[in-house]
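User: Structure tokens for both sequences below?

Assistant:
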Amino acid sequence: MIIQEFTCKEIKREVDVISFSWESPSNIALVKYWGKNSDQTPKNPSISFTLSDCKTKTSVSFKRKKNKSDNIDFELLFEGEKNFSFRPKIEKFFSLIKNYFPFLLDYHLTISSSNSFPHSSGIASSASGMSALSLCLMSFEKELTLIKDDFFFKKASFISRIGSGSACRSIYGGINFWGSHPEFAFSSDLYSIQISDNISPEFHKYRDVILIIDDSKKEVSSSVGHELMNNNPFSNLRFKKANNNISRLMNILKSGDLNEFCSLVESEALMLHSLMMSGHPTYILMKPATLSVIDKIRQFRMDSKIPVCFTLDAGANTHILFPDKFSEQVMIFIKNELSHYCINQNYISDFIGSGPKQI
């Protein structure tokens, strides 16, 4: 089904050759979305922090062709080399969005992309990659149709979602909300929105340190994991709980209660993995080192009274969240107590960021 709001407006300019480049960051969900519909909309809403330094840089060159084709014609380069493993995902993405960008059928696209973080590092590269690509496409549409900025980013989030659900949360900086929720009239399953009003100063400067515990390919992909939620015996309870946790987290973000923040975020991470362990077939993505790190973080929080907490995506690697004002103590703790659980003592230090930027 075509959403008419996001169809291309009247073309007002003709362009033969042009290129655009964007940097877009990944994000880490606080309330997780796990389970999606066939149209890439979520079974439950989610809230995320947008990162800063963990990002994808994408450049797209558009060159008019002599003959129009039925599909979007493109060449893909990743880290400076032709990439064939990512091509099927981009082909599928383009097949789903070509009705929203019909002018692209007149062009050959050269896409060049690179990440600032290693592959399989527990950072959602599909979120940063698809959002960066979508922003380049939107820049071209803006060049041709002169659309306004508010629609530019709204459609960019809508388009990103079609490529990767979590990518729609990378279009804006800070705190992002994605999914329809009965208490929030502004919410939508089709795109994310930025949450900035009445957020406590406690969350204005937050950090995320990612421990690289396992860099192997996951035995069950996130896409398969979402599909398995269709038959999970606890799925309906999970969707109800996620909606309740959205309400709870919004209140926490306004009040600045960091202890409650830690409690909710950790509960969400463990619930995500419990769903993996209770489906059919069952699977476990955490590693023994993940559990050791969790125990260490909880003990450190208890001993130091510092509100540091963990969260997990669909993998073994651990995100450590804490206010920047506690950086000195927490980074010493990570170096002395947690780094040896990481591959080659490797961890990535990042901050909550301001969102994508055109370069």
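Moving on to the next sequence.
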Amino acid sequence: MATINSMIRTGNLSMFSDYAANNNRGTARNSLNAIWQRYTSSTNNAASTAAGISEVRQNASELMSAYDTTKQTFYNEFDDNMDALRISAAAVRNFNFNVGENAVTQTENVASDGTRTTTTTYSDAMRNALDTVRNLVNDYNEARSFLSDNAAVSSRVERMAQNFGDTTYRAGSYESIGISVRRNGALTIDEETLARAINKNPSRVANVLGRNGLADTAERNVETAKAQRDRLFPEAKSMFGDQFDAVALYTGRAFVDMTTISNIGNLVNIMF
């Protein structure tokens, strides 16, 4: 398991940069970078003065606080993604794709210069069907993207990202009703092709997307993800490495009783 320091230096934990750039709830990357700079300064001071050790203790506390914030933000986004996907998958699984014979109408228009254009109109039932499928595809893509972006958090998240990205084995079936599968597992919809498929053979669309198709795959992936939820984000001790006790030493009561600081200048090296 890589340490926080190595993650910051190599950028392996994408969640820190993603949260800092795109999510107001997450500022862990910025906090950790600032903490790292203060550690460098405080450890140099601590080598010659007892006052410096107080700064080390404060920075160690801030590091743990940043870890807790990042962990909570990760789980909040994880829960949001899984809950949204579970709801949209259930909606498609239970949807009746028999939208009626006049669900798609086309009107040909002739301009004054003789140019012909065709306008396609969907009934409310067809529009509802398209929206229901689109919600599932969007939510599946969001969940897949979240896990893929954070695959470096742990081996469990990495394996889960691979599961969500493995939609290519049914690519042919999805393609036949207007849903394309990219190489990374992301899904895209051709609305016109999907509408024609629903209008022509609703039972086939229900089979490809419903109980035996994408919705079923999504629900199984969500169930597996939920079962592993509390083991996805590594605990602080494993994330900081075997020297986690050194952090606890400077954030706990033992700090008050310390009488020597000759090795405090090496604290960061010991921790990371």
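User: Anything stand out in the second?

Assistant: Residues 4-76+235-271 form one domain.
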